[in-house]
Amino acid sequence: LEDPFPEEANRRLIATLTRWHFAPSEEARQALLRENVPPRRIQVTGNTVIDACLAMAEGAAIPAHLKPATPHVLVTLHRREITRDPAILADVLGALRTLAERHPELSFLFPAHPLVAAAAREVLGDLATVRVLPPQPYPVFLALLREAVLAISDSGGVQEEGPALGTPVAVVRAETERPEAIAAGGVVLTGLEPTGVVVAVEDLLAANERAPSFPYGRGGASARIAEVLSQALLSEPAHAHEPS
User: Fold this and answer.
1) What is the pLDDT tens value at each position of the chain, 244 positions in all?
2) What is the CA radius of gyration of the chain?
3) Quick count: other Cβ atoms within 10 Å of Cβ 128?
4) Is the CB of residue 18 less than 8 Å from the CB of residue 40?
5) Which residues share a beta bridge with 221?
């Protein structure tokens, strides 16, 4: 329940009361079926995160004061797997330093969560090609992500947003609840060991390819959900009720 946060426990508790399950992918639908959720209660709609991502990315631009002179890598770190142990955080930041030193042709832009900002500046602040930034507005962040050669992140959202914008992602975690992105390609799990982080990023850089697919749909999930709910609520008798 505490490794790292109880999201999965919360999801399973909520799922027992849920009438409509709007799954982001067929893989998610199959997982719900294995938990004995009735098929009639599951609709594969895509992910509403992609709706928001594509809407906010449209017209978004990198401000002049942030625009790097060279191709850039976007970095984010914030999850408890890394931040709860100073030694793990130091290892991951050390891996980033190694990568920056190996690739002076790249800029590394690091909008830093308050949990990691001080440590990031201590380990990386003297490198000319690394900029430790304050957190950015969502449209600016998406522009930075869209224009990056790749992202290095422990974020769940970036695993969805990166493929939607065509950007490969090195996921700095031991495991992920988004296996669809890994299976689709362009998103790789690095683990938390420094060597694994460096090797995974080097492989993505060598591949020099955009993320190949939309594992969570191409948008429109919100409209599909609204349509299902409208049809269901308008068609059922007024006295009908189930857990909602």
Assistant:
1) 777 678 888 988 999 999 999 999 999 999 999 999 999 999 999 999 999 999 999 999 999 999 999 999 999 999 988 998 999 999 999 999 999 999 999 999 999 999 999 999 999 999 999 999 999 999 999 999 999 999 999 999 999 999 999 999 999 999 998 999 999 888 999 999 999 999 999 999 999 887 667 889 889 999 999 999 999 888 876 555 555 4
2) 20
3) 8
4) no
5) none
